[in-house]
Amino acid sequence: MPPIKEILFDCDNTLVLSESLAFEACAELANEILEAQGISDRFTGPQLLSTFVGQNFRGMMLGLQKMYNFELPENQLDDYVDRELGAVTKKLNEAAQPCEGVMEELEKLKGSGRYGLAVVSSSALPRVIASIKKTEMYHYFPSDHIFSAATSLEKPTSKPDPAIYLHACKVIGVQPGECVAVEDSRSGATAAKNAKIPLIGYVGSYLEDGKEKQESVAKMLKEECGAIVVMYHWSEFEECLKKVEVS
Questions:
Q1: Tens-digit pLDDT profile for residues 70-91
Q2: What is residue 43's predicted lDDT score, i.e. its pLDDT?
Q3: CB 226, CB 196: distance < 8 Å
Q4: What is the side-by-side order of every strand in the sheet holding 146-148?
Q5: In this entry, which stretches build a coiled coil (predicted)?
Q6: Backbone phi, then psi, for 12, in 5-degree steps?
Q7: Does residue 98 have a cis peptide bond before it, meaning omega lies within 30 degrees of 0?
Q8: Residue spans per domain, the chain
Q9: What is the pTM of this model?
Q10: Is 6-17+97-245 a CATH 3.40.50.1000 domain?
Q11: Cα–Cα distance, 96 to 243 (Å, whole number)
């Protein structure tokens, strides 16, 4: 395996505890769409999160249309995407918090100077920037090393499509095998796997859902998505990275 040059971090619930905040806003809009379609089902934020974790809002709404067999005109979908971005960004600016232990690890990585650091997210760029600014992570990531599947690509997409990872590698100037990705969800981990990027799974943000859920996700990340190692807390990151480098 070639030496690792770049660490590619997912943002939502990997660097920043943002998913529950974001999905509150997403659920309100999803329910508005369902009501307009004459569909009686409704989602809470946690239900929407469980169904669509790791996807951006456009990806969620495409999934919702498939699930309930209806189609939104493209301009209407774009309007909902814009509204969701504003609502979520406002919540993140007010209340986003870092995942436990991540700030210490980012500081160590920056101090070592051994690796480039980048954020590779499905979420829209303003949302990602709001998250990392509110949590004071912004100075760890060069502005041209923050990538969004919803914003950075010519054609917006969402993980598990590997396009955003491949785009990030091309812009940074590294091969996928010279990177390691850190992901917490099936969609994100699958995107890294399909881009042929070595993977560290992270399940620390699932602890509030109980140990059974946490272990279930850990098993999925390893067995289905090919994570080389899974970490339960950011304090384990240094040892996990060593295991990737010798694998």
A1: 999 999 999 998 998 898 899 8
A2: 94
A3: no
A4: 146-148, 116-121, 6-9, 179-183, 199-202, 229-231
A5: none
A6: -65, 120
A7: no
A8: 6-17+97-245, 19-95
A9: 0.84
A10: yes
A11: 31
